[in-house]
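Hi support team,

I submitted a single chain yesterday and got back a structure, but I'm not sure I'm reading the token output correctly. Could someone confirm the output below corresponds to the sequence I sent? I've pasted both exactly as they appear in my results page.

Thanks,
R.
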Amino acid sequence: MAKKVFVSGIFDLLHSGHIAFFEEAATYGDLYVSIGSDKTVYELKNRPPVNPEQERLYMVRSISCVKDAFIASGSGLLDFEKEFRELRPDLMIVTEDSNIPAKRALCEECGVEYLILKREPHKNLPARSSTALRSVCCIPYRIDIAGGWLDQPYVSKHYPGPVITVSIEPTIEFNERSGMATSTRRSAIELWGTRLPAGDPFKLAKILFCYDNPPGTKIVSGSQDAIGIVCPGLNKSDYACGEYWPSQIHSVQDESILQMIEQSLYLIPLGSREAGYDVLSNTHIDRDGAKALATAAEDCWDALLAKDLVKFGDAFRRSFEAQICMFPNMVTNTMRQLIEVYRGEALGWKVSGAGGGGYLILVADHPIENAMKVVVRRKDHELQQAPV
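Hi R., thanks for writing in. Yes, this is the structure output for that exact sequence:
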């Protein structure tokens, strides 16, 4: 009977170095892999993983030399202890940089052999590490779910209301001018580099908003862009009449809500915006329009908290319709034709990237063929509420 071989790690940004380690470990017996949970990653590193735990689990289980893998249920450096004791392996293998006394002590207590391997890349491949790969830009994008334009004083002065955004991991390289806050994201990269800094996300969002709109800025980027990028999860920003910065930000990290958003949003790429296209011409901004937009956004928030997908889709659509009543140049005839194609398949729809260059975003209760999916950025908090 083959020995049971046990290894543990986070295995984020899976690379050839991980595969080489698994292959070498598997030469000693049947390989079982413990994977650190998202919660543990945040506790140990003060940041979320790039790839969430279920995606990491799927990838590791797909490797042919791995007998089985699981998410560790504990926390800290021995987050795997419960599963370790239940599995009762014959051998635990670690690398030089993960060799800690607590692991050796656990093995000695349980009568498990302990082996340390050197980090060796596969033949003809360069050495890899997750730390080096993190130099790739990890600054999020954001999707304006409902209420967009109410963060502009020339709209909110007619009627106050919220803007709802969701922070999106950069798993997709979104087009420029696509309605995903790409210009504010560029400002974040100028300010902070490839990763958001640690700290209070509400304060960081305000710093980014100020950096994005220095004194003398003629066309001010709405603060919902900075909030949506920096504040993880789902966010509701409440704007008073004529204010650039919200009076309150509510941030929700309920996993079931975030999963519902991921599972129901589908993105269809749109064509490029026409040269010289002016989104802000031919506007009809008034109290009725701003009120309709605010009401739809509030309804959208309530539907999300209630996890009511049908009501979410309806409010999502009504928010978009209120937007284009005030800003008719948000959509072209081509976009309207595309909406008609998907009208029977979707519960709601809107466009990002006013006038083109963005995406038709659908809310649906079933997969939409050839559509893209997004990954919501997480943080290990249930509910945050900040006066700002």
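A quick pointer for reading it: The CA atoms of residues 140 and 169 lie 5 Å apart. Let us know if anything else looks off.

Best,
Support desk
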